[in-house]
């Protein structure tokens, strides 16, 4: 588990300088909104065979949803669909308080504190749910 000050720095870094933000021209996308708070995220994914070749997002909302999306793109780009699904499951279990942070999550461990904030869990999971929905509709996925 990351120290709280380190976790805050990681979240702030991704909020202030999001990685892989912006449209991925020509790639399939999906947009989801958290009705409870108004957070919105659009996720684009370019697949090459069974690999996430590129992954981008855009959106608006709180630091949790936007930093989660930014970290997700870094964590999953270049991974196979099976690896991405496994990492996603581990992240979801951590956020829901069902499992301790797995060191394999890397910087995503910074969001482990969200498990104590029930209303914020949906914020952290929003981009991941968008990606899951997108992958369900992807040909061959």
Descriptive terms for the model:
globular; alpha+beta; 44% helix; 141 residues; Sufe protein. Chain: A; 3-stranded antiparallel β-sheet
What does this structure look like?
It is a single chain. The protein has 141 residues and is an alpha+beta fold. The protein has a single domain, classed as Sufe protein. Chain: A (Alpha-Beta Complex). Helices cover 44% and strands 17% of the residues. It contains four helices and three strands. The protein has a three-stranded antiparallel beta sheet, with helices on one face. Helix 1 crosses helix 2. It is globular. The model has no long low-confidence stretch (mean pLDDT 94).
Please summarize what this structure is.
This protein is α+β, with helices and mostly antiparallel strands. Helices cover 44% and strands 17% of the residues. The protein has helices at residues 4-16, 63-76, 81-95, 118-137; strands at 29-33, 40-48, 51-60.
- Give the H and E element order: HEEEHHH
CATH fold annotation: Sufe protein. Chain: A
Low-confidence stretches: none
Q: Treating each run of at least 4 consecutive H or I residues as one helix, how many helices?
A: 4
Report the C-alpha radius of gyration, rounded: 14 Å
CATH class: Alpha Beta
- According to DSSP, the number of beta strands is 3
How many domains is the backbone divided into?
A: 1
In terms of topology, how is this protein built?
Layout: H1 4-16, E1 29-33, E2 40-48, E3 51-60, H2 63-76, H3 81-95, H4 118-137
Antiparallel strand pairs: 1-2, 2-3
């Amino acid at each position: 588990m990351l120290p709280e000050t380190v976790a805050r720095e990681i979240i702030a870094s991704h909020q202030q300088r999001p990685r892989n933000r912006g449209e991925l021209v020509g790639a399939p996308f999906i947009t989801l909104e958290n009705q409870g708070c108004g957070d919105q995220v659009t996720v684009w994914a370019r697949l090459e065979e069974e690999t996430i070749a590129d992954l981008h997002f855009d959106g608006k909302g709180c630091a949790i949803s936007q930093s989660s999306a930014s970290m997700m793109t870094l964590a999953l780009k270049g991974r196979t669909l099976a690896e991405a699904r496994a990492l996603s499951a581990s992240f979801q279990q951590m956020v829901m308080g069902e499992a301790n942070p797995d060191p394999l999550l890397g910087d995503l461990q910074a969001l482990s504190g969200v498990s104590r904030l029930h209303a914020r869990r949906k914020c952290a999971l929003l981009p991941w749910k968008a990606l899951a929905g997108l992958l369900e509709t992807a040909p061959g996925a």
